[in-house]
Design a protein that fits this description.
Layout lengths: L1 E2 L10 E2 L10 E6 L5 E7 L6 E6 L7 E5 L6 E7 L2 E6 L7 E6 L8 E4 L7 E8 L2 E8 L2 E8 L4 E5 L6 E6 L6 E8 L2 E9 L4 E6 L10 E9 L5 E9 L6 E6 L14 H8 L3 E5 L9 H5 L7 H16 L3 E11 L1 H12 L6 E5 L18 H4 L5 H10 L13 E7 L8 H12 L7 E6 L10 H19 L8
Helix pairs in contact: 3-4
Length: about 475
Amino acid sequence: MYFHALGTAQEKDRLIYSTPETHGYLHIAERVKDGRYLTIYSTPGTNENALTVVDLEDRDWTPRPVVTDWAAQWTVFANDGTKLMLITTDGAERRRVVSLDLAEDKPEPFEIVGEADGSAVLNDIALLGDKLLITYLVDAKSEIRRFKADGTPDGAVELPGIGTAGGLFGSANEDEAFFVFNSFNAPLTVYRYDANDDTVKIWAEPDVPVDLSRFVVEQRFFRSKDGTQVPMFIVRRRDVTEAAPTLLYGYGGFGISVLPQYNSLRLARVEQGGVFAVANIRGGGEYGRPRHTAGLRLDKQNVFDDFIAAGEFLKNEGIATRNGLAIQGESGGGLLVGAVTNQRPDLFDAVLHGVGVMDMLRYHKFTGGALWSAEYGSPDDKGQFSNLLAYSPYHAIKDGTDYPAILVTTADADDRVVPAHSFKYIAALQAADLGLTPHLARIETRAGHGGGMPLDKLIDQHADMWAFAARWTGLEIRPLD
């Protein structure tokens, strides 16, 4: 990690931090809000990290190791002089708030706000005057709670509805804070919270030329194969009260939470009368570290079992029509939908793979794939090899079985999940005897893993995806008024 002064030659950059004795670490630098400290988070590719601090008031900029192992997650959000305030999973798998005093030779965590009761996961935090505002995930939706400086509970902030709050921004010298909120039927909006009168008001909102009151969001729960309870969000038009063609989305990996989020492209499909569902399966972070590890490495099958149970729930409860269930996943979610298609080809009617990890025996050979071994397990390990082979979408295709219609999307310049995954997978599908439904690939040019794709390409791609899924799930597409 180097310091570069704008306008100077690169060879004059100053080395700040390195680990030459150990390769393969990611080093991420952030400056604490008051500007004094630089924090460096080092990780081998997991959600846990070591922590190094540089005091920028010291002219030598000497890195000081504060946490040297990878047993927990540590994130600094503020400081009071030499006292760092942090969020950590140390001693709290759903996170707690602690302080570390850098004036001490060996700083020990001092708890400010302990791990919440129940299943609430601490997700975001901000200082506001003499208070703390903390965002929690409760069953995959947000709550904002207030605490006094000593950690005593002090009420809650009222949110507009079921959705996701984040980006908390406050100051120890102010009595106002800002945050963003959005949901499946509510676009990203900035809210101002006034601590003096405990009010929340819109500060900035987009102009959306759609009657969003026509759409409803509900949360349901279902049981997976082993009895684990899993939440699901369901989005539909208010007047769609019977079973309808349904698109089920999931991810299930890397501790990533799939939360209520406004997406006009998905809402366009709902506007046509379809249902959109999100299953918060294991492998994600919606219930903290235990939920992630329950879908890790040798336990990856739990992720697939949850998603299969979600599909069964949608059909059994009369939410999806009997022949009208499409599934979608991207990146690690592409792995998900590829694996469950092999395991239950009878359950799904259309499959949308996006930039997926499809060859689980060689994923670590390309670009940054080696960093994923902490999540999936290493193919170079005999026991993990057998587990990976059992569910690898490319290797586990069931020749001689009727498969649903499949559309694989990728891009020729994807350097996150190289397109060879998709190329090999679709070739294997087309070479097998899988019935009469089409198994096609759509390959975008001059594009990558999805982030930053121009709007015209996004619209074209989703138009193709939604039309494909509609054809094989019975959703009637009509011109919009």
